[in-house]
Design brief:
Number of domains: 1
Number of helices: 2
Shape: elongated
Radius of gyration: 16 Å
Strand content: 5-15%
Structural class: alpha+beta
Oligomer: single chain
Amino acid sequence: MVAGSVWRKWDLHVHTPASFQHNFRFSSEEEMKKYNGNIWEKYIDELEKLMTLLLLELQTIFP
């Protein structure tokens, strides 16, 4: 059986930690220690928590 059209919500505006306009930081000293100061590891962990993610566009904007 064909389902027809499927409408999905898309958010194509995700900044990387290297972007000038990001707001992605460690929330505590403990969290920084957990990731050994590597913000990219935290970033990837947070992206992996998005279970419904079908498409992601990464943006890095430099000043």
